[in-house]
């Protein structure tokens, strides 16, 4: 659907905001809500900087998020729901917003948690920080619900214009604070933040998030991956980071270089076990593809199986959803 592609692009957009277009959208959103436009519009280079700007505002008046964002959204949702009926709305949502919801909202949550982590030394201020982050209008990261209203009315046009041209923003009676978009965004095929050689998400002011296949990692962690050895992997106390190290290093390489011994061997493959402190064992089955490659070689595959696996055949059977007794392949491929 063209709308979904359009708003998927909005959610993933990087580069400088179109400030005149975003500011016009902000003023339209205020007018649509029956409000006088803000006297000032303050720009910030990231949501972190936007939060700092909000905290230092003077004479901004009360937040008007309810009027500008929450009420128009609720009214339009009710109108379209009534127009389409429950089944029609569910079908429409499934074809539009639902297709962007998980990845887009997960990204917004990662930004919130990244800001909270950055400011974690100010424990007393964290409740206020979390509340202010929830008060933000998410701009481009509201794409997951804006797509469902695209072309179905004009009450959300101002919000859509801001989203198409800028990042997060905070609306107050007298002032609006609006943020730039990221300058970098790297995700894997499932939409998770993912990059092995730098920030997965970065803003112009340097605020950045680092992640490996969706898992948050410290900024300096990725640089260390290229110098890993089995001893360093074993020494890592954080179980989640240790798993990242193993994935990057390669289970087969780790097994070979750590002197691991096979736990079982049969006609299906070889069972290996990696014992890890304060974590469940990593158990792998080494199998060889019985169909040769074009050059005549046979490719080896490593299948991760449950920690309680005791035989290679049991592990291979598990990958097919079978128990070992029921797994009797005529020909392995």
Descriptive report:
The protein is built from 13 helices and 12 strands. By secondary structure, it is of the alpha+beta class. The protein folds into 2 domains: 180 residues, no CATH class; 92 residues. The strands form 4 sheets. The protein has a 4-stranded antiparallel β-sheet, sandwiched between helices. The protein has a 3-stranded mixed β-sheet with strand order 1-3-2. It has a 3-stranded antiparallel β-sheet with strand order 4-5-6, covered by helices on one side. Strand 9 and strand 10 form a beta hairpin. It is elongated and about 75 Å long.
Write a compact overview of the structure shown:
The chain is built from 13 helices and twelve strands. It is α+β, with helices and mostly antiparallel strands and 333 residues long. A hairpin with a 5-residue loop joins strand 5 (201-202) and strand 6.
């Amino acid at each position: 659907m063209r709308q979904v592609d359009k708003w998927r692009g909005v959610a993933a957009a990087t580069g400088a905001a179109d400030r005149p277009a975003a500011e016009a959208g902000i003023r339209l959103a205020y007018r649509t809500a029956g409000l006088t436009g803000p006297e000032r519009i303050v720009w910030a280079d990231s949501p972190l900087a936007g939060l700092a700007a909000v905290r230092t505002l003077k004479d901004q008046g009360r937040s008007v998020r309810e009027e500008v964002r929450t009420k128009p959204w609720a009214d339009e949702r009710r109108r379209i729901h009534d127009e389409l009926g429950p089944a029609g709305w569910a079908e429409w949502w499934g074809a539009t917003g639902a297709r962007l919801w998980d990845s887009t909202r997960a990204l917004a949550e990662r930004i919130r948690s990244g800001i909270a982590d950055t400011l974690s030394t100010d424990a007393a201020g964290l409740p206020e920080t979390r509340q202010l982050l929830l008060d933000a209008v998410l701009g481009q990261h509201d794409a997951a619900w804006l797509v469902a209203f695209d072309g179905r009315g004009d009450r959300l046009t101002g919000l859509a214009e801001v989203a198409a041209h800028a990042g997060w923003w905070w609306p107050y009676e007298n002032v609006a604070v609006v943020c730039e978009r990221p300058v970098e965004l790297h995700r894997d095929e499932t939409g998770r933040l993912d990059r092995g050689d730098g920030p997965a998400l970065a803003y112009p002011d340097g605020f950045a998030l680092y992640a490996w296949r969706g898992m948050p990692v410290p900024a300096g962690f990725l640089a260390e991956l290229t110098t890993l050895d089995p001893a360093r992997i074993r020494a890592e106390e954080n179980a989640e980071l240790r798993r990242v190290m193993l994935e990057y290093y390669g289970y087969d390489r780790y097994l070979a270089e750590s002197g691991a011994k096979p736990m079982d061997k049969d006609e299906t493959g070889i069972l290996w076990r990696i014992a890890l402190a304060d974590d469940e064992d990593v158990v792998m089955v080494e199998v060889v593809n019985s169909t040769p490659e074009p050059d005549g070689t046979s490719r080896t595959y490593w299948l991760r199986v449950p920690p309680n696996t005791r035989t290679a055949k049991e592990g291979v059977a598990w990958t097919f959803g079978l128990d070992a007794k029921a797994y009797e392949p005529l020909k392995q491929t």
